[in-house]
Amino acid sequence: MADSQRAVASVSKAVVPAAGLGTRFLPATKATPKEMLPIVDKPAIQYVVEEAVAAGLDDVLMITGRSKRSIEDHFDRAYELEEALRAKSDTQRLHSIRESSELAQVHYVRQGEPRGLGHAVLCASAHVGDEPFAVLLGDDLIGDSDHLLQRMIEVRETYGGSVVALMEVEPEQVSLYGCAAIEATDEDDVVTVTDLVEKPPADQAPSRWAIIGRYICDPAVFDVLRETPPGRGGEIQLTDALRELAHRKPADGGPVHGVLFRGQRYDTGNKVDYLRTVVEFACDRPDLAEEFLPWLRKFVAERGTGTQE
């Protein structure tokens, strides 16, 4: 594919890896996918799909595994439930359950064996084909007003190659993420990624700019992933493939740019951050905040906050 074609190819498909075992939330995730855990009254994965759709990506591929059938059911029609709500003239709840089935064209492929994020992305190759595509991880929810994915698509259209979302983290947190070595561009929120390291020790991290769960990938990533050996944790790492593309010229699928994200990110990947997310979303809901916030203030005052934040 010519350089000019690579640079202007539009992004129309989103890939959502959802094959993880969710072990940090056991026993709740023994039979329920972690992606279906509710943020107030909506499963986390629906927020991710809504974000993709808001960015113009209405073709969504879920990478699933065993015990993930409820994800498919959630984005399908529920005729008996719809009829029961219609009989009660409960139009509000009827609309809410139809909303998920009408959001996007949702497709599914099974990963089979959990061999890492890179392998999960590789499972999307037949569906995506030779097109750039977005990858959205379900553990990260992005604030509605931040439009991160739209900005990443714009950067892809300008520079070609792949784009990662980068967020500055505390030094003690860098070992939890893939971290980037970066160089400035003429745009304040855009950098060139010169190197990537998956979960480095704090004293070996190239920067404090960590990859969060949003990517725009050039289709060249598939060929790289096919040749990428298992890395950290014995898994095929998407970070390792992007590191290879960062060193390539546009004709070969490079380069890699980063969007420096300073907006609102909600991490639902562990119990404490998940609970924080639920509370924040509840406080932002007009239908809940009036009753919930006074109770929350009273609860915190009675328990005492101590000196720590």
TrEMBL record:
Assigned keywords, A-Z: Nucleotidyltransferase, Transferase
Transcription among keywords: no
Similarity comment text for this entry: Belongs to the UDPGP type 2 family.
GO biological process: UDP-alpha-D-glucose metabolic process
Phylogenetic classification of the source organism: Bacteria, Bacillati, Actinomycetota, Actinomycetes, Streptosporangiales
Protein name from the UniProt record: UTP--glucose-1-phosphate uridylyltransferase
Reactions that this protein is recorded to catalyse: alpha-D-glucose 1-phosphate + UTP + H(+) = UDP-alpha-D-glucose + diphosphate
Gene3D superfamilies referenced in this protein's UniProt entry, alphabetically: Spore Coat Polysaccharide Biosynthesis Protein SpsA, Chain A
Family annotation (NCBIfam families): galU (TIGR01099)
Protein species of origin: Marinactinospora thermotolerans DSM 45154
EC number of this enzyme: 2.7.7.9
